[in-house]
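Lay summary. Proteins are chains of building blocks that fold into shapes, and those shapes determine what they do. In this project we predict the shape from the chain. Here is one chain we studied, written as its sequence of building blocks.
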Amino acid sequence: MEKEPNKYNIRQPSTAAITPFGNEYSLSTNQSLSTLPNFVLDWIDQNSNEFFSVWNEKGKGEYFSKAVENILGYEPEDLIGKSFLDLILPEDLLYIRKEFNKETFTNQTFNVHILNFDQKYIWCECKIARLIVPNHGKILYVCTIRDITDKKETEEMMVRSEKMSIAGQLAAGIAHEIRNPLTSIKGFLQLLQAGVNRKDVYYKIMIDEIEKMETITSELLFISKPLTDNKQQESTLEMVKDVIELLKPQAKLKNIILDIIGEDQFIFCDKSQIKQVLINIIKNAIEAMDEPGKITVTIVELEENIRIDIVDEGPGIDEEVIHKLGEPFFTTKQQGTGLGLMITKQLLERHNAQLEILQNEGKGSTFRIIFPK
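And here is the predicted shape, written in a compact code that computers can read:
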């Protein structure tokens, strides 16, 4: 059976003429696509690290460039008529449906898992533009898709490296915090060995001290674990308390008090990723303070958002460098890598959350995390 000719006059979307049409775009149906020879266009398409696709309003594939075979392993004709629902990881569909609104849609970029020919999901970056076909007003979505698996693996490696770096930096404070309970336990055991009668009191104190050590060590082990990608409703208060418990030893070495204000709120998130964000920011606040003081973590519920403010009493951040924070390898610390805040921003992007850095009127800075409800 002969294939239907390309009814939208697109030979290769990479060379198609796309012209502004209001806030959207219009496909030109009568302009010459290119003066390049066909073999050059074929070579570009076959060796491209991204492919083009056209989807109708119902989400069915209508066109795929040849480069889809390099990235997903399918022949272009295998995907004609196939729904995007069959190709995208179900968890990612929730994210797309939340962000994708037909009425207010503008050009958007999504990072999603797409099923390849070997039935494995690979990380892909999808850039989508909304197009209107002239004359009959049909709406299409043109999408460029590229494999970003290597990029994601590099990001994960950087996160692991930063996590291990943090664990090493916290080691001195944690060692000090564990040594004190061990000294107490040793003393009580010696008293019990000597025949002191207050056994019940001593047992209770020793159990309390052991539980304190367990909490610290379990949080330290949590840092070294790989990041998961398991989102569910989580308690902000519980996550903040866990992180503060881990960072208390380091804060205590500098006579800094860690305080929490506000009622518990629940956000849809991956617990391990958000705790990593909180560790990065609160640890930075501790390191920024050269004098004793307080770091306050405030949880606030707003009409559309849940906000977590981390307020320190350090020297503050110069206005000229605030906008640079979060750039790779930019740091204001002598021993810093500049990766902590970059990783923090990437993790928050995965949750459609934002990070704002503000100068306090008196002294210090406020790191504000804003989560959608």
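What the prediction tells us: The radius of gyration is 27 Å.
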